[in-house]
From TrEMBL, chains A, B:
Alphabetized PANTHER family for the sequence: HTH-TYPE TRANSCRIPTIONAL REGULATOR RUTR (PTHR30055), TRANSCRIPTIONAL REGULATORY PROTEIN (PTHR30055:SF235)
Identification of the protein by name: TetR/AcrR family transcriptional regulator
Start-end of DNA-binding region: 36-55
A GO term for molecular function: transcription cis-regulatory region binding
UniProt keywords, alphabetically: DNA-binding
Cross-referenced InterPro entries: Homeodomain-like_sf, HTH-type_TetR-like_transc_reg, HTH_TetR, Tet_transcr_reg_TetR-rel_C_sf, TetR_C_16
Length: 196, 196
DNA sequence: AGATGAATTCAACGTGGTTGAATAGCCCCC
DNA sequence: GGGGGCTATTCAACCACGTTGAATTCATCT
């Protein structure tokens, strides 16, 4: 399957997919800084210039690889149910998403790269304000639903940041249940409580 | 003032300070990734190898430049006063610290580099668990003061992250007073309220 | 004065993102 | 059915970066 001469490799136009798969794996396992275009190219058995050709830049590769990796549907299931217990459901679902071996590593990769590349910040911004806050705001009864949704999202993000990225004690060793009990009511207050 | 020959430049042993100043300026203005050791050396009119000699690595340079840049004293002033309004005072002071042209840019540089270099994460961890949570916990009356302090710190960090680093709407355009009114009670609940 | 050690520079290595030109295969149109 | 053009693909090169090792200069101690 190896190509020795120059020019287009015949037969397989799924090369782009292979590059994307390698990129996702590398970004997730090693983060943005430690991921190299040359390494991704090597893993996909391809020339580095081809990665550039397809995705323009390392930033573009990150965007293509991890946009759409935010677990929108996984969180949406928390929306259905009694609004008075929405805070606890959302908090628990959020924690599960961060701990799931499926979705967790991808979120870590995105959030952890926010400062390294504009793509990560944009993905996160789109997620918080479009994919999470908008549907959440629609299921809220009170005034200023967008503001409520963003305040809740910020609270959840701070919790996850301290727990999973910084791993600061004693937050890192609290159980999921303890966190739901501690943080859930604050989220609930943002969603349906009195904001002043 | 330029040196043309090799060897130690006579007279000025404050070169280390000059390098540190250039490093702080660059990390603060451009972040970790965009700061280059060669650029810092150029700004300090020094050879890149000298930066390595003094600080060991880019990571070491970051640590030396920004450790101690967290505004511990600025936040400590919020501790004195009535405990029942501590949440609001802390929230307001925290926002002011992020917005001050003195302390704000440095915090942004540190928090924004958490994923890029271990030094930033360690600085932040030391700050949250040592310099902020410990004195905060000491002035709390209830049970589990460390846990309360960290929960409050995580809430504040999430707020700042969404507002100043992501700049997601409508959080970015809320006023300080609105945020104090909205977030302060949640912080207060962590500090003195019922955690379940 | 000589030795010691720190400050400082120079040149080099390896790696990384990115670029420009070149080639090879495919499809469309006349 | 043959030529033009588009796309996939590679190669070689550029420049900047972090880091290293040896060399040189200076100050200080003995």
């Amino acid at each position: 399957m190896e190509s020795s001469k120059t020019g287009r490799r015949p037969g397989t136009p799924q090369t782009k997919e292979a590059i994307l798969d390698a990129a996702i794996a590398s970004f997730v396992e090693s983060g943005y800084a430690a991921t190299t275009i040359r390494g991704v190219a090597r893993a996909a058995d391809v020339d580095p210039a081809l990665v550039m050709h397809f995705f323009g830049s390392k930033d573009g590769l990150f965007d293509a690889a991890l946009r759409g990796a935010m677990p929108v549907r996984e969180l949406a299931v928390a929306l259905s149910g009694d609004v008075s217990s929405l805070g606890a459901r959302l908090t628990r679902r959020y924690l599960e998403v961060w701990e799931s071996p499926e979705t967790g590593p991808r979120i870590r990769a995105i959030v952890g790269s926010i400062a390294s590349t504009p793509a990560a910040a944009q993905i996160m911004r789109d997620f918080m304000s479009g994919e999470l806050a908008t549907p959440l705001a629609k299921s809220l009864p009170g005034d200023q639903p967008e503001r409520r949704a963003i305040l809740a999202a910020a609270q959840l993000m701070g919790m996850a940041f301290a727990r999973y990225l910084l791993a600061v004690e004693p937050m890192a060793s609290m159980t999921t249940d303890e966190l739901v009990i501690s943080v859930g009511p604050s989220v609930q207050r943002y969603l349906t409580g009195d904001l002043g």
